[in-house]
Write a structure and sequence with these properties.
Layout lengths: L14 H4 L3 H7 L4 E5 L5 E12 L26 E6 L3 E8 L6 E10 L3 H9 L1 H4 L7 H5 L9 H7 L18 E4 L10 E4 L13 E4 L9
Antiparallel strand pairs: 1-2, 1-6, 2-5, 2-8, 3-4, 4-5, 7-8
The structure holds a DNA duplex (13 and 13 nucleotides).
Length: 220
DNA sequence: TAGACGATAGCCT
DNA sequence: GGCTATCGTCTAA
């Protein structure tokens, strides 16, 4: 369980965090905080508990066959967001790593809602369903509803993230989404390393990381 | 420009 | 645990 205090959310992870081996960045992203600044200025945050790495030479990486219009962000400088659509309907949020022209990224697969869980829950279920629950009860419901964080498509939906967020600067605390260094580091004994989910190529590579003690991991 | 195929999630058995 | 909705993107022609 993550703490509910917002802490110093303005401390965005610096460029140097992304400018290093992608597997290191993927593992160290566990425990860090994903921050969503809604258009009205309200914040929602979540503790990152599951990530996957996509590397150069990796057949499962979207950039494996070279640069295209849709995967161009992966070739950009580190610290940018790359959002892609999967199965025609799910958005997946990635943080680009490594220097420019090295197309590697970390997929954020699951978060534990911390601040503003009610807002995430509203975004996930829609205004119609949300209307059935009094506003003051939505935070509590959101913090229990695993649908809003456990899975890349789910967390994107709960945070209102779509393809237009590609190229967002995740190192800038003024961005609509960014990554904060706020959060306790996850000790090695609480990190599980496994193969990635839902891919057919490169399926044997152990490039997925998750927090063992978290209830919000998408799949064990 | 047609055809194939997903870095998923939800519903059904 | 199995099935499939659903559509953007890439590839080949």
């Amino acid at each position: 369980m993550g703490q509910l205090s917002s802490g110093d959310l303005s401390a965005a992870l610096p460029l140097s965090f992304y400018l290093r081996p992608t597997l290191e960045a993927a593992r160290d992203l566990l425990g860090k905080t994903l921050v969503r600044r809604w258009p009205d200025g309200a914040l929602s945050t979540g503790r990152i508990v599951e990530t996957e790495a996509y590397l150069v030479g990796d057949p499962a990486c979207h950039a494996f066959r070279g640069k295209t219009r849709s995967n161009a962000a992966m070739f950009g400088p580190p610290g940018l967001a790359y959002v892609h659509i999967n199965y025609g309907l799910h958005f997946c949020l990635n943080a680009v790593t490594q220097e420019e022209d090295v197309p590697e990224a970390v997929l954020i697969r699951a978060i534990e809602p911390l601040v503003g869980a009610g807002r995430m829950w509203e975004a996930y279920v829609g205004a119609g369903e949300a209307a059935a629950v009094p506003p003051e009860e939505r935070d509590a419901i959101g913090r229990l509803d695993k649908r809003i964080g456990a899975g890349p498509g789910r967390l994107s939906r709960a945070l209102g993230i779509d393809r237009t967020f590609t190229h967002t600067d995740l190192t800038d605390a003024a961005s609509p989404i960014y990554l904060s260094s706020e959060g306790e580091p996850v000790p090695d004994e609480d990190v599980v390393t496994t193969t990635r989910i839902g891919i057919t190529k490169g399926a044997d590579l152990p490039w997925r990381f998750y927090v063992r003690s978290s209830r919000w991991v998408s799949r064990r």
